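In response to a reviewer's request, we include the raw inputs and outputs for one of the modeled complexes. The two entities were modeled together in a single run.
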Amino acid sequence: MNEYNRTILDLLLTIYEKIMLTEEEALLKGHFSDLSKAEMHTLASIGPYEQRTMGETAARLSITTGTLTVAVDRLVKKKYVKRERATNDRRIVLLSLTREGKIAYRMFWKFHTLLVDGMVKGLNEGEREQLLSALSLIDRYITDQYYKYNAREMQTEASEGQDTAKKLSRRTKRTQIKMKQTREKSAREDKVKEAVQNEQAGNK
Amino acid sequence: MSKQEISDIVTQTIAQAAAMDPAEVKADSDLIADLNMDSLAVFELVVDLETAFDLQISDEDVETLHTPMQIINYIAARVKLD
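The model returned the following structure tokens for the whole complex.
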């Protein structure tokens, strides 16, 4: 492996590891120290407004429903998650967040918002766009690799997971379009300002 | 729902999240600077308001809501008034 590739690999792995460790530390020192990182991710995959089935939630987390059942049992006991039967089909179990679960979810989301704000604070508009493009290319490649290796064992989960990947890709595109529009709007405003200034200078 | 009812529910919910008497909640008090609410209290308030008015309040909107009056106007604009 050449030095460039090794540095990229090291950086990606280190960043991933440090984000995970930072999450863990933030949880331990925050208001929700009784929640593990995995439990917080389970809350995030259920979401604050939805009722989700066990299968849907397990697919979003890329875990089996058996593993999820254990996690949900704990979260129900800690009063972060509600588990109820669907009224139209009693065989289906629906998960949703309790008031405490919703508050924890919002705090966790805020933590990530601040983390990303801090990460991109030092970058200018062009650098932000480049970072977004590079990361989405990397994400697309890694997603393809992941599903290539898992296709046989996890066909159902993979299709739901691929939906999530597609959603991420669409969101990335929307963000890129928004950034472009903001840039064009600001260029137009600059032109207008310049024209006004030139006109004022001409009048003088 | 009337604007007065919205105002009463918002004031009561803020008082509960800030652990204070509703009479102490003034329309232009700053949630953080004047009512000493931390981020946890703000999120408790947001979740309780979402439940009380059956609406969703995005984080971007939360960033723009600093006083009880701003919250009352925000909710009045989003729920059906009498």
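As requested, we also summarize the result in words. Chain B has one domain: 3-78. The two ends of chain B are 5 Å apart (CA to CA).
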